[in-house]
From TrEMBL:
Annotated InterPro entries: DUF2357, PDDEXK_7
Pfam families named among the record's database cross-references: DUF2357, PDDEXK_7
Organism field: Bacteroides caecimuris
Full protein name: Uncharacterized protein
Length: 747
């Protein structure tokens, strides 16, 4: 289908697209037809521009006029340019060499294709061709829109949210699309901004420098000189007596001061300084940009020509008569208003200012929309976690940072370099990590502690670890979120559906990422659930009952639609994260689907027993060596404790405390005579209980004292892991704070 026909005095250009009607209806369904418009503009020489819309209607458009959009992301656009017979050596003039290589010129036809991938924003088609000895160029400008998000609204919201958290993280270079940006009152000017601003100003700056050199501003300067009497054009009063005294001596020289014009002015000194600074900076950045493999020959030639011109201006003899710049004592009207000087001063001021991604006249390139969406989702999840934990900014420990990506733009740090810790009263509640890469080599700078992958590396976008203390101190529950800038159509209720391969990827993550217990040298399952975040839409009521949402309750794998300014569907994710935070560990683990043929019971009751060297109370042989298998009680065991409900045992050393957890394998009766621990008692056949134990884990990093007032007969405590914090004599401020918080929740 022919979408666009441009008739120019030197050529005719046709832009095509297969199945454009499907693309249009897809975009219309996702973001609405009223948002599918673009502003088209072009350079001189065009006689007509005819656009064909999605139903084949032909529309003649004017320069800088809005019309239905025809360029969308991830779409192929074959382009044919048929030149007149007198045109020679035509080529595509992109800054990217890979773009230029897609076009070939043969038999007066320049042909190729464009696909903007995930890059949205304003773009240009530039043609360069030869007519005789003259090199001509043509530029056609338009907007590339997203089929999934509203470029005019959603993209701006994503950029604003990212810039608020990480200033200038959105920037990128060597992209095919660009966006407007404008001066800002605060902040710094990164090198990418400097380069982008000067790219818009360099032609005007060079022209202004040439104009000044040709017609510089002068000033009169007093200069001492010695002249004979016949050479004096004016006789100052100070030499009248000397002139009378030597009137007979025609060779006598008189010292006089005359006014001469000089180029050594403050304004010309500033020009010399500004030109030198800009030339040096341009040379450094040019060298770095040329190292980019994808930089085109067209761009390199243009940069070389600009640098050569700047250096040639620096070597002009004019600057030999100009001194070094030492600053301005006061504002100069010449720099602000004089022809040429004002442009140089304006360029210099622009290069020193800071900028923001607001609509403006300057061009700036940003990361592709898929990467921006991924970063934005990470920020959104962090905001939701903070909100649901009821934390303030002071409770958030940002250990994440931006890192240079090799040129002069930034990426968000990955793995250990992107951690956000959520704390309350110095107690860790949650941790959020961006883009960790887990491998079979264990933890690395871009991985996560204690997480390993024994097969191929896995790299989820967002990892949320919630810290729970009801089963074990500092136990982390791991959930994965993956941001996908894709939509796989709609279901019968008109709800956008996430891509199938993305859902499959979450199954792979959950199966591939393990927890490495270095103490027991075993692998354990780590990931509880995985969820896709995608820019979908739909009625929240329908989304709540969609298949991809219901599967979360069934198998803990699914998806959530998340896009800017969609508060209703965002609430579904908010409610889910709140549920993850409030659910107890044993409830979460009990819902994990067990392997066929196995039975999983998550025990929660724990028996704390006093350990001594006396058989009257309790005995645990070789406990401190970690090899204990049996715990013997004294001759009396409380009848109030239900043995069938006990799952775990924690030994309490008198005067020290508790630390490790043992799993109760079996409980049986045994006589003191059998274990030879009568300790002087006459009746050596009295019965006591023997607990067969297996080491399970460390509950605390260090031995913790306990409140012994809760002990039955000063020997046993029958409790649960949730209640363990009330028994352990921890920091009273934490316990009291938690108590007040629970009271507020009840109110």
């Amino acid at each position: 289908m022919e979408l666009l026909t441009i008739k120019h005095q030197d050529f005719e250009m046709i832009v095509e697209c297969a199945k454009f009607d499907d693309i249009w209806y897809k975009a219309k369904s996702n973001i609405g037809e009223e948002c599918l418009h673009s502003t088209y503009s072009w350079s001189e020489g065009v006689s007509s521009v005819i656009l064909s819309n999605h139903i084949g209607e032909e529309i003649t458009i004017e320069n800088s006029q809005q019309a239905p959009a025809i360029f969308f992301d991830n779409t192929d656009y074959p382009i044919w340019v048929e030149f007149k017979n007198y045109v020679k050596k035509a080529k595509f003039g992109s800054t990217l060499q890979s773009e230029n290589e897609k076009f070939t010129f043969r038999r007066q036809i320049l042909a190729g294709f464009l696909n903007y991938g995930n890059e949205v924003g304003r773009s240009e088609i530039q043609l360069m061709y030869q007519v005789g000895a003259e090199t001509r160029s043509f530029v056609f400008s338009f907007e590339v829109l997203s089929t999934k998000l509203n470029y005019h609204e959603h993209w701006k919201a994503i950029i604003e949210d990212i810039e608020q958290e990480y200033r200038m993280l959105s920037l990128d270079y060597m992209r095919r699309t660009f966006h407007g940006f404008s001066p800002d009152a605060s902040g710094e000017t990164p090198e990418i901004i400097w380069w982008s601003v000067f790219a818009n100003e360099q032609k005007k700056f060079i022209k202004a420098c040439k104009n000044i050199i040709d017609r510089p501003r002068h000033r009169l300067h007093g200069k001492e000189t010695y002249k004979r009497a016949d050479k004096l054009t004016f006789v100052p009063s100070c030499i009248e007596n000397e002139l009378a005294e030597h009137r007979q001596d025609s060779s006598h020289l008189y010292r006089v001061e005359e006014r001469v014009r000089t180029n050594d002015t403050q304004e010309n000194r500033f020009l010399k300084f500004a030109l030198g600074q800009i030339t040096d900076k341009y040379a450094v950045l040019k060298k770095r940009i040329e190292a980019v493999k994808n930089a085109s020959d067209v761009m390199k030639d243009d940069m070389q020509a600009t640098l050569a011109t700047l250096k040639h201006l620096q070597r002009n003899p004019f600057f030999r008569t100009v001194g070094n710049y030492k600053g301005m004592n006061q504002e100069s009207l010449v720099l602000q208003k004089a022809t040429g000087y004002s442009q140089v001063y304006r360029t210099w001021s622009l290069l020193r200012r800071s900028y923001s991604l607001n609509d403006g006249i300057y061009r700036l390139q940003t990361k592709d929309i898929a990467t921006l969406y991924e970063i934005w989702c990470f920020i959104e999840v962090s905001h939701i976690v903070k909100e649901k934990l009821h934390l303030s900014d002071e409770d958030i420990d940002h250990k994440n940072r931006m890192e240079m990506n090799g040129l002069f733009t930034w990426d968000l740090g990955k793995g250990e370099h992107s951690r956000i810790l959520f704390k309350k009263d110095n107690v860790e509640l949650a941790e959020l990590v961006y883009n960790p890469k887990n491998t079979d080599k264990g933890n690395s700078d871009i991985g996560m502690k204690d997480l390993v992958v024994r097969t191929v590396p896995q790299k989820p976008d967002i990892v949320l670890q919630l810290t729970k203390n009801d089963l074990q101190e500092g136990m982390k529950m791991t959930y994965l979120f993956d941001a996908k800038y894709r939509i796989d159509g709609k279901d019968k209720n008109g709800v956008d559906v996430p891509p199938e391969d993305a859902i499959n990827q979450m199954h792979r993550y959950r199966d591939a990422i393990y927890y490495k217990d270095y103490q027991s040298n075993t692998l354990k399952k780590e990931v509880i659930g995985g969820y896709i975040l995608f820019p979908g839409d739909g009625n929240p009521t329908d989304v709540a009952v969609s298949k991809f949402r219901k599967t979360i309750d069934e198998v803990n794998i699914g998806a959530f639609p998340l896009r800017p300014k969609d508060q209703h569907n965002r609430q579904l994710l908010e409610q889910f994260v709140e549920q993850l935070i409030t659910t107890k560990s044993h409830e979460t683990i009990s819902k994990v689907i067990p392997q066929k043929g196995t039975f999983v019971e998550v025990g929660n009751r724990v028996l704390i027993g006093l350990v001594t060297n006396s058989s009257r109370k309790g005995y645990l042989q070789s406990f401190k060596d970690g090899n204990a298998t049996l715990y013997y009680t004294g001759s009396h065991f409380p009848t109030t404790i239900a043995l069938q409900n006990l799952h775990y045992f924690m030994p309490y050393f008198k005067g020290e405390g508790i630390c490790d957890v043992y799993e109760i394998i079996r409980v049986r009766t045994i006589t003191s005579k059998e274990v030879k621990q009568t300790d002087g008692e006459e009746n050596s056949n009295d019965l006591r209980l023997a607990f067969e134990l297996r080491y399970f884990r460390k509950q605390y990093a260090n031995i913790q004292p306990i409140n012994t007032s809760k002990m039955i007969n000063y020997t046993f405590i029958d409790t649960t892991f949730e209640e363990l914090y009330q028994i352990v004599m921890m920091d009273k401020g934490i316990v009291q704070g938690n108590k007040h918080e629970r009271m507020r929740e009840k109110e």
